[in-house]
Amino acid sequence: MKPDPMSEDYKKDCKLKDFLGDMVDDIMVADGLADAFIGVASFGKEGKTIAIYDSMKIIERLIKEGMTEEEAIEYYEYNIASAYAGEGTPIYMVPVDKEVWDFKKEAKAKKTKPKRKKK
Predict the structure, then answer these.
(1) Cβ–Cβ < 8 Å for 41, 89
(2) pLDDT by residue (tens digit) across 82-97?
(3) pTM surpassing 0.90?
(4) Helix spans in the chain (H)
(5) Cβ partners under 8 Å of residue 1, min gap 6
């Protein structure tokens, strides 16, 4: 998804690259997806810094651009999430809603162990 150099997406990408360039010398960003950027992560012995994007925001954007939900998911999975651009390829994460997480923890805590019958 390479944005048109005159588009808002291109301008946002440039701002993101400038911002990240002040923090990290060499970081790869996904073209046209600045709105879905959520942060950076470091890994490995060298502490390589990688850009992180919210996959749900990307899919929502594709739907807003005219794709059906099914088309957007398929496009995202095949053309974005599966793309490998070498070391430093961005990470596409799926956010977990805190309310869902809390509900599952509470439900698990409420489960009681069955009592053993005395013989």
Answers:
(1) no
(2) 999 888 899 999 888 7
(3) no
(4) 8-23, 55-64, 69-75, 98-110
(5) 30, 31, 32, 33, 79, 80
